[in-house]
């Protein structure tokens, strides 16, 4: 007796929604209420909030505003708690925080039709997103990124992640959030260093997809250095647009293949973050990683010198780093420690090593091996 195999394709339509607003928790701003009520429900919509402690400290009115908002919309909405969590990478390194979130979800009877709302930097969104994607196998999740990096890149994607054994994002899932709300008012309290971190992900996406956007960022360098809201907001909006379009149209939203253009410059960046014990922020590390892969593209004869100069000048002009002493760290067998980032990147992607490089500004291509000597020369030649 033989049994025929059973196979069926499953197509699941996802809607990747990024909404833009200012002061989402003003009682006369209907955006969040309408979002929470956009799906049919027999009862008031339950929501539990997780706030980045740094954001809450910089916005002391935030907790009372959320309470007032839910009170104002009491007929439709049901607030099940507001919890503060530590900011930045430490939250992604400690499983106690995940356990805390799971426990609160269970205690508050947050079901698959309820909402887990996260407000904060990329690290908090990654952690809460992971909890939302895994508790009950997936609770509706709304993200409010509060950094330029989050609003333009980290927060608008479909990934979440948690660090394990010192490895960035070793644990995580692909889970499109119910919606992303980019509230520009949060950027008013964001420290300058973090404002700049979002600039580099915009430069990255311009380098791999859109030379015109790169020209625009160059033309706005003074305005961006002065943190003029119009320039910062346009940069964030265009960056988010590119990231979402890439995810939605590249044919590989859940990264089944090994091609990862949005990770241009990231193989070295992830390693640097780790080597520095996260002293170097993600944005700073990406700036250095992009500088390395730009110089490498030139040394291999792919990219012309004039483009290299433009890229390095723009990074420097926006006061982002192009070098860190951690790049000189050696392993026990006297190898350059940054180079181990290549193999770790391959492991993380799975399959064949695939690195995105540049042919021109706005035009990328992929290679499957890198010349170690030329990487080391690129590191030597970094502006410092
Ligand atoms: N999931 C993804 O696809 C993806 C993509 C890129 C990056 N990431 C992750 O994102 C993280 C980096 O995120 P990040 O750059 O947003 O930094 P972050 O989460 O480390 O936060 C930066 C700091 O700024 C503070 N802060 C945030 N918003 C503020 C505001 N509006 N006002 C005052 N202070 C504020 C935070 O409290 C924190 O101290 C990294 O863990 C990275 O791996 C994830
Ligand atoms: Zn990044």
UniProtKB/TrEMBL annotation:
GO BP of this protein: amino acid biosynthetic process; aromatic amino acid family biosynthetic process
* CDD domains documented for this protein: DHQS-like
Task: Give the record's keywords alphabetically.
Answer: Amino-acid biosynthesis, Aromatic amino acid biosynthesis, Lyase, NAD
One short Pfam name that applies is DHQ_synthase
Q: What is its EC number?
A: 4.2.3.4
**Gene3D superfamilies annotated for this entry?**
3.40.50.1970, Dehydroquinate synthase-like - alpha domain (1.20.1090.10)
Under InterPro entries, the record lists: Dehydroquinate_synthase, DHQS/DOIS_N, DHQS_C
Q: Signal sequence: where? A: none
At the top of the EC hierarchy, this enzyme's class is lyase
* Ranges where the 3-dehydroquinate synthase N-terminal domain occurs: 85-196
Q: Which residues form the 3-dehydroquinate synthase C-terminal domain?
A: 198-330
Its domain of life reads Bacteria
Q: Give the matching SUPFAM superfamilies.
A: Dehydroquinate synthase-like
Q: Name one GO molecular function term.
A: 3-dehydroquinate synthase activity
Q: Which cofactor does it need?
A: NAD(+)
Instruction: Quote the NCBIfam families the UniProt record gives.
Output: PRK06203.1
Q: Which PANTHER family match?
A: 3-DEHYDROQUINATE SYNTHASE (PTHR43622), 3-DEHYDROQUINATE SYNTHASE, CHLOROPLASTIC (PTHR43622:SF7)
Q: What is this protein called?
A: 3-dehydroquinate synthase
Originating species: Pelagicoccus enzymogenes
